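ok so i was messing around last nite and threw this chain in just to see what happens. nothing serious, just curious
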Amino acid sequence: MQKPDKDGFSQLWPTTFLQKKIDKAEAANQALLALITQAESSSSDMTVNYQAENLLSGSDPVIEWLKQCVNTSVANYLKHLGIGYNIEWSLQGWANVNRRGDYHNLHNHPHSYLSGTYYVQVPSPAAGGSRSDLNPSAISFFDPRPQANMNAIDGDNQIDPEHRIQPEAGLMLLWPSFLHHLVHPNLSDELRVSVSFNVMLKNTSQYLPS
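result:
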């Protein structure tokens, strides 16, 4: 249970979110792009049929690099939460290739603890669409507490139920799997390519609260 600070205030029910650019990822992104587009050429439903194959189980050097980036991000996330005991997890990942008009409906990721996405290639925000409300190729996350913003006033951090990110190549995102999110349509002729993944905890009695 969280204790209030010296003035009596507590921040309740937080949702921890990681958004971090991976340094010096350009060469790896080119290798990932080649690997993913080649795989998609023989499997057009690769993005939809995400459970058919675990991309992160591959032995290609660039997959090993990406797996290390993901595992480091997960370890940093758990450390930030203040979890001070050993956690074991497994990864299941898949590639997303979005062409012009492609998008992902509102969803979350059941049966996992954390979920995330690494961006390999993203069209320019200015590519496609002239309206300010279109947000091409952006990703939006939504407050998991329904209607929590209904009585918010100006200056209240709860006033906006949507957290929108315009991603770029090399960006890593990590969030609790229960968080609902969607991907806005790609309005460019350039591919939007990412690798999404789930973090499944290996079962142990350590996770049970005392």
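not much to say yet. The longest helix spans residues 61-81.
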